[in-house]
Design a protein that fits this description.
Helix content: 25-40%
CATH superfamily of the largest domain: Vaccinia Virus protein VP39
Number of strands: 20
Distance between the termini: 52 Å
Number of helices: 11
Strand order of the largest sheet: 16-15-14-17-18-20-19
Strand content: 25-35%
CATH class of the largest domain: Alpha Beta
Number of domains: 3
Largest sheet: 7 strands, mixed
Shape: globular
Length: 433
């Protein structure tokens, strides 16, 4: 998908979205250039360090006073206790994150601003090579200085998530900018879940522009072809963030027997199959997801006899392998579970669950086997996850970390915002004795 030409120089920043997109503006107030802020937020003395360093969140406890209208999604400028401008953002009194910064200076959060952000994000994906695929992440929230905005490209369809009150207020400008910059044939909005509810926003799930997308969209990632359900699949339809790790599994898999746990629609399975795996067993509780995986396996021209698809619980499959003879075990196990910690209060319980899961996976490996293991829980840091993996080993095992794994370049993380690194993983080799 190629970028369209820039807005003509004579167009005003507050002009209407492109023809056919006017409905997006209904109920959404986008400011003119003369309407910059609803409020000014001043921080307490000594509380401006994170904002000065470029952290995009300001917590309610750091705020000394608010001058002006403090409604959810209101535009605000942020000042230090001494009156120095620290940035421009949006305010919501409902949560602990009171302000989300969209810029580190004083700017108008208008349609021109949003388009620049989207154009910059697209340029980054082009320079990083992500657009050579037909599936990639276009917008990654705080990492692209658009907090609460996620957009994934699936061929000519873009799936958008708008997850906080500030992004909701900019919804019309966001959708119009995506249309202008990447020129999709359809845009699907899947703005739903706990993040929106915490912001006081209802769920929204609809095709907001263009044709209704097909039940499945075929996308290409390197030589691999995948099938994506953008209307009912997990996240925006596919785990875009695992692209580099799928490629790694493909390079490792030649002549190996691979167990792909939490297989979803078969991303790691297909990568392993294309990489020459002798046998790939995929475990997933969702029957519809496994059917998509089977169909995608066939789409890639892979031999059906090399694949097994188990609609079972991962723990039920892993547990008996601990006492199985070596020939029944695997050379490579992939663990890509759902998040075990959706809130900070869940962290300790999640660490115990990761330890238990990885203990079972390690015992399912042959000597010298490889484990690619992941957490997508932002509240479990990389170091804490590694500790959980290390302490899951049996006394006779020696674990060697061969690689640290994470999301690709189209999922940028701000240097001052380590919370943005939600996907962490390790490639581990298991030696005995």
């Amino acid at each position: 998908m190629r970028a369209r030409s820039a807005r003509p120089s004579g167009a005003s920043a507050g002009s209407e979205p492109p023809r056919g997109f006017a409905a997006w503006s209904e109920g959404t107030r986008v400011p003119s250039e003369n309407e910059l802020f609803d409020a000014t937020v001043k921080l307490k003395p000594g509380k401006d360090g994170p904002a000065r360093a470029g952290h995009p969140w300001i917590f309610s406890g750091a705020i000394a006073e608010i001058d002006g209208e403090s409604r959810p999604g209101g535009f605000c400028r942020v000042l230090s206790s001494a009156g120095q401008v620290l940035g421009t953002g949006t305010y919501n009194p409902r949560g602990s994150i009171a302000v989300r910064l969209f810029a580190r200076d004083e700017v108008a959060l208008d349609t021109s601003f949003v388009r620049r952000r989207v154009a910059d994000a697209f340029a980054l994906r082009e320079s990083a090579g992500a657009t050579r695929n037909t599936v990639y992440r276009l917008l990654h929230g705080e990492g692209d200085w658009l907090p609460g905005v996620v957009a994934d490209v699936y061929d000519r369809c873009v799936v958008v998530q708008i997850l906080n009150a500030g992004a909701e207020r900019l919804r019309a400008a966001i959708l119009a900018a995506i249309h202008e910059v990447v020129d999709p044939t359809s845009i699907v909005e899947r703005s739903a879940g706990g993040a929106r509810r915490e912001e006081g926003l209802p769920d929204r799930h609809e095709t907001v522009a263009g044709a209704e997308p097909p039940e499945r969209i075929e996308v290409r990632e390197g030589e691999a072809r995948y099938l994506v359900d953008v209307r009912g699949g997990q996240k925006t339809g596919f785990y875009v963030d695992q692209r580099d790790n799928r490629a790694l599994v493909g390079r490792l898999a030649r002549e190996l027997e691979v167990l792909n746990c939490f297989a979803y629609t078969g991303g790691f399975a297909i990568a392993a199959g294309l990489g020459g795996a002798r046998r790939v067993v995929s475990v997933e509780t969702s029957g519809p997801a496994l059917q998509i995986a089977r169909d995608a396996w066939a789409l890639n021209g892979l031999d059906g006899a090399r694949a097994e698809w188990l609609a079972r619980d991962v723990f039920d499959v892993l547990t008996p392998l601990a006492d199985a003879p070596e020939e029944k075990r695997f050379d490579l196990v992939v663990l890509d579970p759902p998040p075990f910690a959706r809130h900070r209060a869940d962290r300790d319980r999640a660490v115990r669950a990761y330890r238990d899961l990885n203990r079972r996976a390690l015992r399912a490996l042959r000597p010298g086997g490889l484990l690619a293991t992941f957490t997508c829980s932002a509240h479990v840091s990389r170091d804490l996850f590694l500790h959980a993996v290390a302490t899951s080993a049996q006394p006779q095992m020696r674990l060697q970390v061969l690689a640290q794994l994470g999301a690709p370049a189209d999922h940028p993380v701000l240097a001052a915002h380590p919370e943005g690194e939600y996907l962490s993983g390790f490639l581990v080799r298991v030696a005995q004795g």
